[in-house]
Amino acid sequence: MTTHKLLLLPGDGIGVETMEEVKAIVSFMNEEGLASFETEEGLVGGSAYDAHGKAISEEHMKLATESDAVLFGAVGGPKWDGVPYEVRPEAGLLRLRKDLALFANLRPAICYPALAAASSLKHEVVEGLDILIVRELTGGVYFGEPKEITDLGNGQKRGVDTQVYETYEIERIGRVAFELARTRGNKVTSMEKRNVMKSGVLWNEVMTRVGREEYSDVKLDHMLADSGGMQLVRWPKQFDVIVTDNLFGDLLSDIAAMLTGSLGMLPSASLGAPDERSGKRKAMYEPVHGSAPDIAGQGIANPIAMIASLAMCLRYSFGMVELADRLEKAISDTLNDGLRTKDIMSEGAREVGTREMGAAILAKF
Amino acid sequence: MTTHKLLLLPGDGIGVETMEEVKAIVSFMNEEGLASFETEEGLVGGSAYDAHGKAISEEHMKLATESDAVLFGAVGGPKWDGVPYEVRPEAGLLRLRKDLALFANLRPAICYPALAAASSLKHEVVEGLDILIVRELTGGVYFGEPKEITDLGNGQKRGVDTQVYETYEIERIGRVAFELARTRGNKVTSMEKRNVMKSGVLWNEVMTRVGREEYSDVKLDHMLADSGGMQLVRWPKQFDVIVTDNLFGDLLSDIAAMLTGSLGMLPSASLGAPDERSGKRKAMYEPVHGSAPDIAGQGIANPIAMIASLAMCLRYSFGMVELADRLEKAISDTLNDGLRTKDIMSEGAREVGTREMGAAILAKF
Ligand SMILES: CC(C)[C@H](C(=O)O)[C@@H](O)C(=O)O
Ligand SMILES: CC(C)[C@H](C(=O)O)[C@@H](O)C(=O)O
Q1: Among A311, A298, A364, which residue's Cα sits nearest to residue A337?
Q2: Which of A35, A148, B150, B354 has its CA 20 to 30 A from that of B325?
Q3: Does B148 touch chain A (CB under 8 A)?
Q4: In chain B, which among 70-109 make CB contacts under 8 A with chain A?
Q5: Does pTM surpass 0.85?
Q6: Hey, is B218 helix, strand or coil?
Q7: What's the rounded Cα separation, in Å, for the pair A104 and A97?
Q8: Can you list the domains of chain A with their CATH numbers?
Q9: Which residue ranges run through the membrane (chains A, B) (predicted)?
Q10: Do A196 and B90 touch (CB under 8 A)?
Q11: Catalytic one among A68, A193, A215, A285?
Q12: Is the CB–ligand 1 distance for residue B337 below 6 Å?
């Protein structure tokens, strides 16, 4: 049995306590001989800053580069609101994405039947919802230069960020979206603001060409990102795969996640390109939710998104489809048994903490 | 009685037919001696391009500059999808905003009681919703330079847009938001992505200072724009006034409008700074909805957002508070009588077309 290197980066806030439940499942797989994982643990975000003044140390970056997959919790919190921009908690996450070249961010927005009632949307609007947002993750306004604040004198400053996309960046994220659409509803909706942004014009042009030349069997639609946001709220089931840039993807995937009423449940995968020789791709898995500092350390956080991120990791990084299926089934079985953490609690269910939820899922696994 | 110069720019699609209903109301006010308007009509968007190859002609720009207020319908449609970027329909709208220096875009998101059922959100989430989005309209990624596509050779291109804000731009939009909050719930939520964008860092810094130094009586909160989008979907009533930049404002105001289920009802105002001598401010009023090419020309479009834009114009540009109140009441009375256009139709109501809805509102006015 091949041994895989897994790096755990719990980060800050509820990242820490939810990662504990993942550790228990990984140990179980090792002990039972279901898989062989060598795990290491590193610091990222505010906790890394506290330890060594950087949002991620060179040593832990090296661990990430050498691992077969990274499991990431969450970063940030009011404690670090005042730290310098370059070492703020988010800088650790952004560096991981950029240095590992994880350009494809897969964010499924699925409405768990047991949780449809938790959505602020009407039942019929979200029941059975299953869409996938494919967000470009290493380009756009997140990384473009110049990115700076200049002092103009007279008490005036100028803040600048640069949105930039090159053809190859749009092509490769487009291909990821089209490939995934073929395994699902065979439909891709590309979103940009081509009516205002030149990068949007290029985005639209490249997507159209890739669709026509390489994926003529997949239906391709285009929407302006603002209309796309509206349509997500109006009738999200019209979508199958949505492909969009880093910044629009940030907003739209969060909105899509919130629609489902299952925010605490949703995992995501960030993938690099397959290595030319080994075919292996760098990958990082993380919950869509953030570090939730308001409830951190209380043992009440929902560990499901973190555990579901492990399932995604088993599936996408190691091809352990059966184990991934089992883990996902353990999650839904536990929900069907009526166990709920506070964030998804509803009448008639049984409220449990992080540990108890994790243990219940492990017991069903 | 002072005579005011009103420029009507119906634009494209349903802009044309809904503006007809505004014309009828303006004529009525003139005839009854309620007000004295001198109206002119111009072309903008695709219709301007068809007439003279530009999204707005110099002559009609001049009319706009000389008028006391502009009423704008909507622009765009698939017919003009292939026209060059510089003369695409939206360029007309963007030029009006920029050349008239209309930096403050006020977008109320109100849930009309008669229409709460039309929302995709649960009744209790949107019932009675009344928030105001204040969007910066002449800066940011919409206008920053460079904004270009460069050919890099090898089949590669690079698309660039520039997000830029200076201190004074943030200050003045902040002041508009704080002033308006004082007339409402006394609360401002500022949204940006300071964890990723330098312009967001500056935005946050300036808002905080303006709030502390000039409006310490108004509660100021900050939210990351992605969380803000989630919170809008989760529980929109937590907000009073939201202030944000051009691009985030574009997305978030559309989402807020869609939440209400009243998209066809919502007007907006775009205001400039008061003139140093006359105290007058340039202003343009337009529906939040777009040109809806799919239903254009069929006489079924909802004219209410356009008529409500006239009401906003009476209120903000001419201080005709009583007339504005009357017109808004005429709208709600007509809705209470059970009249509905197709987009807001529900069981038990009576479906009417654009003309009939306009006439009914005029009759109640
Ligand atoms: C934490 C932050 C930098 C990050 C982002 O903006 O990408 C987060 O919002 C996300 O969506 O993963
Ligand atoms: C038509 C388009 C240029 C415009 C914008 O992006 O500002 C529209 O979406 C709006 O919100 O008024």
Answers
A1: A364
A2: B354
A3: yes
A4: 76, 85, 88, 90, 94
A5: yes
A6: coil
A7: 10
A8: 1-106+265-365 (3.40.718.10), 130-259 (3.40.718.10)
A9: none
A10: yes
A11: A193
A12: no
Catalytic residues of B: 142, 193, 226, 250, 254
Q: Cβ–Cβ of A254/B227 closer than 8 Å?
A: yes
Q: Which residues touch B278 (CB under 8 Å, ≥6 apart)?
A: none
pLDDT at B358: 98
- Which residues does A14 contact at the CB level (< 8 Å), separation at least 6? A73, A74, A289, A291, A292, A295, A296, A301, A354
Q: How far is CA B341 from the centre of its chain?
A: 21
Whose tokens are 């100021």? That residue is: B220
Instruction: Show which of residues 301-340 on chain A sit within 8 Å of chain B, judged by CB atoms.
Output: none
How confident is the model over B267-282, as a mean pLDDT?
93
**Nearest atom (ligand 1) to Cα of A137:** 7
> What percent of chain B clears pLDDT 90, i.e. is strictly above it?
94
Q: Given CA atoms B290, B295, B298, B303 in this order, what sign does their dihedral have?
A: negative
Is residue B118 pLDDT above 90, yes or no?
A: no
Residue-wise pLDDT tens digits, A209-226: 999 999 999 999 999 999
Q: How far apart are CA B198 and CA B202, in angstroms?
A: 6
In this predicted structure, what is the pLDDT of residue A114?
82
Residue A297 and residue A77 in contact, taking contact as beta carbons nearer than 8 Å: no
Query: For the segment B178-223, what is each residue's pLDDT rounded down to a tens digit?
Result: 999 999 999 999 999 999 999 999 999 999 999 999 999 999 999 9
Q: Give B-chain residues touching A149 at CB under 8 angstroms.
A: 198, 201-202
